[in-house]
Amino acid sequence: MSFEQAHRALQSAEIDFTDDLALLRGNDKLQQAIIALNNADISLSAPIIEREFGFPNAFAALRRNPILIEVVLALEKVGCLNKSSWLGIKLKDSLQREILQVIGQKPKPLPHGSITFTDIEALANAGIYKRPGHEDPLYTIDSNPELRQTCAILHRNYCLSRTAFWKFLVPGNQDFIRAIHLLHDTGSLDSSTLQGIRNPKFRHLITTLHRMGALSQESLESIRSEGQKAKHRGKGNQFFHAISILGHLPDLQEDDWASICGDDRTSRQRRKVLCILQDTKAHGTAEPLLTMKSWQQVKASPISQAAIAILDSLNLLSDKTLSKIESEPLSTMLITLYKHRKFSPEVWEAIKNHDKIPELLRGMKTLWNSGIELSSTQIIDLSSRPEPIDAVSKMLLIDSLNKIITSAAHLRRGTQCTIAHHLMARVESESGASLERSVHDTARIASRPTRRWQSRSRLKLGSPNMPEPFQAAESSLEALRKLHKIPDPVWKDTITGTPRKDQVSQFTTYNVMKDALKAEKSRPNAKTANLSQQGTEMTGR
């Protein structure tokens, strides 16, 4: 029956097969192939020529090519024999063999049109053939539309391979499949990125970038570039690690990528701190310190970033210390001490619970700016004081008075030395407003003119002609002025002014202090003189 059908088909196509009649009669598969082509509305008489090589018609191509015959029959069996597939296979011997390996020698029928020749060609070009213990790949993709779509994507991007198919796609590795689609959607899919997503960490990176709205060729290239730099330095890719860490957070924000992608110091610091928080566990748990809350804190505050890195460097970072440095003043204090090389576990214990961190920090900065270096012991002692401004004020006053005494002694001004000594004894027991008055009194003593031709009213602050004791103590006195926020006009009045009898002055005149000292000495059992007599001040220098 098939011989007659094939015979009629060839006659209808006006093909002369007289010399091959016996061949046709004795070859059932040749007959079936001719019938299959005819049923698929493929012209049997059309020449098959490519680059000056070919056959005058389909029968000539089939008659002595058993592989092509098998391919035609196989394509028909899976519902994929048509003009397009015939055009794709007729002169391609190697492709014909690969197609047979994809479909199999005895293919199971498939509904016409459920599989396209493109699907078959993709599998053939990638060398994806039947494996022991697995269903033929053609039927595998036919039963799984998602797998088929993914294979098509890989084929279009020249990325389909046996390894990708059998190791990742057929087992239904969803994060691998999702990564392929995400890369394809952003135009980032190529053989290199496909190789990368075989690694679960890289797949996680892809989905993380997508969640941040940052998946692109540019972002992947920047990560790759950082990785190459890190490899050259012999270090791990912290950029890659930081992004992957963010992927564990539940709610990523659009600005997360911008926060860590830069090559500036702040971005690099954020990446470093992210890794620190992920690697540090909360006390008594296996949970990392990295949470949405801590990430927002790090992202918003470079000060917090620096504080976390410093605490980690001294093994002080924990959930408790992390909560402490939510206070920006404490973080600033910590960083400042670290820059001055004075931060230590002992200093941290001293400052972490202080009630007046801003005042403590302002006081320390004032001391440093005046040239007074603090030891760790002094910092711990200062941190134990409830009123840090008063404590710093006393330190600066004593420093100023010591300098005044040294300079006055060199000038052989004994009275000035004595007054300064008594004022120093008084300072130890003072606080608040009385300390501020001592600041004015100290400035008044220091600015006492040392030469007969000098007039207090003509003294000019900053001039090299200021009295030597004032110049000696000037840095500490200026620090005191700033510490107590004394306005310039008031300070100038303290140095150059004369008190009015109808007003209470902010300072005590030198002569009043000298007279009070004399009066105190004339009494038996005299104690430390009170040099800052209140009331109407005597006019004097």
| Helix content, binned percent | 55-70%
Q: Please compute the radius of gyration using only Cα atoms.
A: 46 Å
Shape: rod-shaped
The largest beta-sheet arranges its strands as 1-2
- Our measurement of the CA-to-CA distance between the termini, rounded to an integer number of angstroms, reads 139 Å
Low-pLDDT residue spans: 533-541
The biggest sheet amounts to: 2 strands, antiparallel
Structural class estimated from helices and strands: mainly alpha
Mean pLDDT: 88
Count the E strands. 2
Counting DSSP H or I runs of 4 or more residues, the number of helices is: 31
Question: Beta fraction of the residues?
Answer: under 5%
Biased composition (Polar residues): 525-541
Region (Disordered): 446-469, 515-541
Biased composition (Basic residues): 449-459
Description of the molecule:
With 541 residues, the chain is mostly helical. Helix content is 61%, strand content 1%. Among the domains are: 173-250, no CATH class; 387-541, no CATH class. The protein has helices at 2-12, 21-25, 28-39, 58-62, 66-77, 83-89, 93-103, 117-125, 137-142, 145-156, 162-169, 174-185, 191-196, 200-211, 217-233, 238-246, 256-260, 265-279, 292-300, 302-313, 319-324, 328-339, 345-351, 357-369, 376-383, 388-410, 414-427, 432-446, 468-483, 488-496, 510-522, and strands at residues 48-50, 53-55. It has a two-stranded antiparallel sheet. The longest helix is centred in the last third of the chain and has 23 residues, at 388-410. The radius of gyration is 46 Å and the shape is rod-shaped.
